[in-house]
Amino acid sequence: MIHRIYFFIKFLCLPLGLALAVVPALPVHWIVKALAGIAGIPLLLAGALAFYNIFLSANRSRVSRTLNMDVHSVTHDNMHNSFTDLILFKGRFVLAHAVSPYHLGNAKSRIVVKVSHNARDWTEIKSFDMGEDIRDPKLAVIGGRLFLYVLMNREVQPRPYTTRFSCTGDLVNWTDLEGVGHEGWLFWRPKSLDGRVWYCPAYWHRFGRTALFSSTDGIHWDYKAKICSGKVVNESCFEFDPEGNILVAGRAEYSKKLFPDRLFGNESGSTIISRSEPPYERFTMCHESARTRLDGPVLFKAGERIFAAGRSQPAHDRIFRKTGSIFAKKRTSLYELSDNGLRWITDFPSAGDTSYCGAVVKDGRVFVSYYTSSLKHDYIWVFGMIEPTQVMVAEFEIP
């Protein structure tokens, strides 16, 4: 049904609107003329908007030349490939991403896992298909095993309800997906400073609470500390700073009524940065950045600097295009992160529906996985959600 509606908007809305606009000039009854005018004007406007965004708008990603970024595509199909993560395991790159007909929740989605020796040539080794919507894969190497954490969803407007995980020691034999033992908590990306204790931020499935969990084996998790409450902060990712403190960046939406926010946006959307010192029992909000609402973020460290990659919105000061609006243009961008906020570094070549990154730092080079709509045009987000997308890997060096 969604694809049929989109087909109508993409190909039929404009010619039908033009046809109805001609009717008032024909020798027909005035009621027919009035009805044609009433129906034709919104069809004409919607069709013109769709035609421009889908066929005419040029991609305007601002990619820094100083990084000498090399970007190549991982997927070459006509599916909506999305929600990536990237890690090193036993000397090989491992990539996980979702494959689905479109961005919205549906039972035809699956998670695929791929491996590569060079981050260019990929081989699919595993696919998870649960008969319901599965998304947001996150990877971690814990105790010599590779863990995959995923979120399960049953709604068209995605609102995941729980976290599942699988693990493997050899990339061949995987355990069945099972729960993490904290139903309703949505885990993001686990990390460890010493390889013994692992920490993972998670948000409550009905929003309003974000917390830190800890584990020594990746299977059994304990509630550690509250990161924030009251505000709708989700998709929080963290990194350890050089002193061993945890620095968290979270996507702030400010409303539990997500549909209105995502339809026209919310001028209060932002990225909230919080900090905690060992033993990580109390978090303090140190900055709220209105520069962007960093959706689907990954934080990583290069040297002593912390960087964040995720979805950004170039313009969020226009009517119907506030932060998070489905009618706005989107990018995947790289920022340097500190207590004082986000400093923009570059866009990745991206447009439409994009972001949800993974990152690996190897031999002084940075590899970032993400997904994007076609780079030929600059879709508004709502069109990008339905168009095919491809997974990309960008390789560059931080100066």
In short:
The chain has four helices and 25 strands. The longest helix has 27 residues, at 30-56. By secondary structure, it is mainly beta.
Helix content range: 10-25%
| Tally of helical segments | 4
Q: Can you name the CATH architecture of the largest domain?
A: 6 Propeller
Largest sheet: 5 strands, antiparallel
Which word captures the global form?
globular
The average pLDDT value, as a whole number, equals: 92
β-sheet strand percentage: 35-45%
Low-confidence stretches: none
Query: What's the alpha carbon Rg, rounded to whole Å?
Result: 22 Å
The count of domains is 2
The succession of helices and strands, N to C, reads: HHEEEEEEEEEEEEEEEEHEEEEEEEEHE
Oligomer: single chain
Instruction: State the name of the first-level CATH class of the largest domain.
Output: Mainly Beta
Count all strands and give the number: 25
Q: Based on helices, strands and strand pairing, what is the structural class?
A: mainly beta
Kindly report how far apart the N and C termini lie.
48 Å
What is CATH's topology name of the largest domain? Neuraminidase
Structure, explained:
The protein is mostly beta strands and 399 residues long. The chain contains 4 helices and 25 strands. It has helices at residues 2-22, 30-56, 258-264, 381-384, and strands at 70-73, 80-89, 92-100, 110-116, 123-128, 133-142, 145-153, 162-168, 178-179, 185-187, 191-192, 198-204, 209-215, 222-229, 233-240, 246-252, 270-276, 284-289, 295-302, 305-312, 331-338, 341-347, 355-362, 365-372, 390-396. Strands 10, 11, 12, 13 and 14 form a 5-stranded antiparallel beta sheet that branches. α1 packs across α2 (30-56). The N and C termini lie far apart (48 Å). The mean pLDDT is 92.
